Amino acid sequence: MESTKHGAAAGNAEPPISGDWTIDQGWESYTAEEHAVWKTLYERQSKLLPGRACDEFIRGMRDLAMDTDRIPDFRRLSDVLGMRTGWRVVAVPGLVPDEVFFDHLANRRFPAGQFIRRPDQLDYLEEPDVFHDVFGHVPMLAHPVFADYMEAYGKGGLRAQGMGVLANLARVYWYTVEFGLIRSGNGLGIYGSGIASSYTETIFALEDPSPNRIRFDLERVMRTLYRIDDFQETYFVIDSFDELLTLADIDFGPIYQRVAALPDLEPGTIDPGDEVLDKGTGAYHSARRRVA
Ligand code: HBI
Ligand code: FE
């Protein structure tokens, strides 16, 4: 992970530019090479996703009419998105501190990385860049129910931080917003941005026999560790976006207490209470562990 000139996250000696960590996108300053990286990634994903991403994601892509051949200008994108769900996209240098991130979401602002990956990083990058953040996250923010869920997550994040249970809530974000699958009449569909913005994980998450695919369950997910540096060993599957939004109304206090009393689960574990849709072979990750 490379830090930006503004410093990667909390703890860096350099002060952020502003209290909310937003910066000017500086759209006029992107180079032709940077726009070309967007175009390459956009073309690849927009060919791959129909039939693999859920209908809501595809509809969001279509309705926002994002630029296909250059990095979108956040001002124009925010105008289009704002008319649909009231969300805006603001530029940040990279990862921002948790409370800053939550405060943006709670106010329907999505902080998107200003920079774009280099041409030699097309397939993999740990820090969220403009392609992951805009192509991956913004289509779902055009969906009214999902848009409300994201705001609720921001508010829940601020509360969870106060209760010292942020790690548990962050897992819910990870296994829904970032790596979620949804089940519908035509099978499984991708809605998680970390999958939708990745060529290789799009195929892995849906078609590879290695990962587990398990019905989403709030407490189960809160206990599940996750990998930030490789494909997921387990994907959790929801049945509808309304299901996600009901999470916003739950009093998490008692749940956090129950979860705190139970052990964390390794990313690839199957738990006796799981509704297993696909029991993975685990082949991909066990091969990786052998060489590690
Ligand atoms: N900052 N820019 C950015 N993007 C994120 O997705 C992000 C972040 N800071 C914190 C964070 N995510 C997560 O650790 C929280 O959801 C817990
Ligand atoms: Fe993300």
Structural class from helices and strands? alpha/beta
Number of domains: 1
Helix content estimate? 40-55%
User: What is the percentage of strand-forming residues?
Assistant: 5-15%
Strand order, biggest sheet?
4-3-6-5-7
Question: What's the helix count?
Answer: 13
Write down the secondary-structure element order: HHHEHEHHHEEHHEHEHHEH
The CATH class label is Mainly Alpha
- Distance between termini? 19 Å
In CATH, the homologous superfamily goes by the name: Aromatic amino acid hydroxylase
Mean pLDDT: 92
CATH fold description: Phenylalanine Hydroxylase
- The overall strand count is 7
Annotated CATH architecture: Orthogonal Bundle
- Low-pLDDT stretches are 1-13
Main pleated sheet: 5 strands, mixed
Bound small molecules, by name, code or SMILES, are: 7,8-dihydrobiopterin, fe (iii) ion
What is the overall shape?
A: globular
Structure characterization notes:
The protein is α/β, with parallel strands linked by helices. The chain has one domain: Orthogonal Bundle (Phenylalanine Hydroxylase), CATH 1.10.800. The chain has helices at 32-48, 55-64, 74-85, 98-106, 130-141, 144-163, 166-178, 193-196, 199-207, 218-222, 241-246, 252-260, 283-291, and strands at 88-92, 109-113, 181-184, 187-190, 212-215, 234-238, 276-278. It is globular, with a radius of gyration of 18 Å. It starts with 31 loop residues before the first helix and ends with a helix. 38% of the residues are buried. The protein binds 7,8-dihydrobiopterin and fe (iii) ion. Residues 92, 95-96, 98, 101, 111, 128, 170, 173 line the site of 7,8-dihydrobiopterin.
